[in-house]
Amino acid sequence: MLKVLRFAATAVLLFTAYFGDVIVFRSRYSNSLLFRAICDVLVHGSLGFFSSIIFFSIDNNYFSLEYDGTLHIVLCTFFSSIIDIDHVFVAKSIYLKDMVNLKHRGVFHCTTFWLALTALLLLYSYIKKRIEVYMFSFMIVLAYITHHLRDGTRRGIWLYPLGSTPPVDKKLYYFILGTFPHVSAMLFKRYKRYFNYPTLEDTFTV
Ligand SMILES: [Zn+2]
């Protein structure tokens, strides 16, 4: 059952990524700033949502951790969408006309910022043995990787202080988008024992 969910969620994720861009940039309503802004946020949120669904559809003994993932899926969707809020801060305006054609990107679009935040969260969860913070770190990673990759197909990935990469190739974007949640879940599984207090099961498992 989880396999079917995983396959279906991956297909819908890629479908949303492709047709989301068609609707945002190439539909008959694309000239409307409001239409583009709303659809853009919805696409970003959907990519986070389906990525986290894939993450939780990989059998990882989540249930033994007492977390079913619902809150984490909501958080991943929320963070994927809210990253664009920094357009408001950079433009210092709530009007869409001021938010387009900004000369520089805000800190939430800086991949280095999120990498540093993720590293701090992982360090904290490792020291304090907070498995739910460990899991939350993966949701943050899924949120900003999907968001930055999609934006990166137009503007590149911003790795302060090194600068920005060239625009990400579309095929590479779809490949990373489709595989990253699977790889994340495997990494979560591989290292989760370092972020949790040992259980009786672990104690007797060699
Ligand atoms: Zn963005």
TrEMBL record:
Keyword RNA-binding: no
Segments traversing the membrane: 6-25, 37-58, 70-95, 107-127, 133-150, 171-188
Pfam families according to UniProt: YdjM
Places the protein is found: Membrane
InterPro entries membership: TMEM267, YdjM-like
Protein's membrane topology: Multi-pass membrane protein
Keywords noted in UniProt: Membrane, Transmembrane, Transmembrane helix
GO cellular component, one term: membrane
Name assigned to this protein: Transmembrane protein 267
Source species: Spodoptera litura
